[in-house]
Amino acid sequence: MPDLRTELAANLDEAEWEWLIPHVKRDAVIVVALGLGLLDVGVAIASDNIPQVQLWIDEQLITKPTTEQLGEWNGNPQKRFQTLIVQPYVLAQEIVDT
After folding, report:
1. What pTM did the predictor assign?
2. Adjacency order of strands within the sheet including 89-94
3. Cα–Cα distance between 48 and 79 in angstroms, integer?
4. 3-class state of residue 16 by DSSP
5. How far is the C-alpha of 82 from the C-alpha of 93, rounded, in Å?
6. C-alpha distances in angstroms, 29 versus 1, 3, 98?
């Protein structure tokens, strides 16, 4: 049986903003700050690592989308995100154009 990290890594994907909108409407999207490993966050949530997840919340490294973010992303429906589904959540991290 594969370990949790390997299992979640197989589910990493990219998504356009418009694909995430239904999940935002059900309040299931968690925005992961740049510089924080999306897979690390997924593993912590899936394994109920409450102290680590709470630390990230306290430091605002994982948040719900803000009104400003929603406005920006709604204006750019092709905006791309790295995503990871950890039921019932969809973790999303902006892909920054360089």
Report:
1. 0.92
2. 13-16, 80-86, 89-94, 29-32, 62-63
3. 30
4. strand
5. 5
6. 28, 24, 24
